[in-house]
């Protein structure tokens, strides 16, 4: 008790000394400015990027040199530098490079200026549509600056896709006259005929551009007519990157004539009889393939995996004779 009382007295004495001591010099506002409170985080752009328009941002970014060149060739630079607001789905240089050989050169010819203009306008949506709004448009379509042409929006596994298979990879690059979302492929306006025509599985894979190896393998195995048949089929389609990740030499070996049966078996292991949509897949623990061997199905953190490690990255690409789900690695039949 005495110790506590002594401590209180000492503390009281120190307080009195502090109050009575002469003030020591401190930095005045002229020598050290008063700190200002940090603003609350917001979604508002910083002053610098917001002061530049869509064309200026694209030109300075470095990933859109082809897009900027096409915008200039089409005479749309002034339009997209205007008041807006606009939402631009901007393909990267890699997206343009993935177009079939000669396509871009052809579009840049003076006689094809209108076609190029139409394609670019198809990437522009009137108004400023932020990513949060896009994610609420699953299953809907939006009007574009190209008269009477719309873009279909799908939200799958937390990602946004346009027209089924063009992925939005970066969002909400704000400009003074709108916003840019970066996409991984070039959008092509649907023709009037295409709007009423659905391609089969093989034709859809060919037109997509990401399945060139799969298509070559299907041709080498002699399965083209089968997968163009009535079906319906569900195809788990590995991308070109999935085939490229196979051990060195594996694909070349599979494409040899003497290994045709082994290649055929692997491809048939990617095909399921019937049309199994994503909503059905997530309720299954396994599925039987055309090869007669099962593939296991696991749902983890909202993602679907086949045989534990192969992830389904895009779902429900509907065709006239079934559906395609895109996967990130090649499935090998379970022994």
Overview of the molecule:
The chain is 33% helix and 23% strand. With 335 residues, it is α+β, with helices and mostly antiparallel strands. The protein has 2 domains: 47-183, Roll (FAS1 domain), CATH 2.30.180.10; 201-327, FAS1 domain, CATH 2.30.180.10. It starts with a helix and ends in an 8-residue tail after the last strand.
Indicate the mean pLDDT. Answer: 85
Cross-sheet strand order for the largest sheet: 2-1-7-6-5-4-3
Largest β-sheet summary: 7 strands, mixed
CATH topology of the largest domain: FAS1 domain
Q: Which strand-content bin applies to the residues?
A: 15-25%
State the order of secondary-structure elements, H for helix, E for strand.
HHHHHEHHHEHEEEEEHHHEHHHEHEEEEE
User: Percent of residues in helical segments?
Assistant: 25-40%
Distance between the termini: 81 Å
Task: Indicate the low-confidence ranges by residue numbers.
Answer: 1-49
Q: What's the count of strands? A: 14
CATH architecture of the largest domain, by name, is Roll
Radius of gyration: 29 Å
Count of individual helical segments: 16
How many structural units, i.e. domains? 2
Q: Please state the structural category.
A: alpha+beta
Top CATH class of the largest domain = Mainly Beta
Shape: globular
What is the CATH superfamily label of the largest domain?
Answer: FAS1 domain
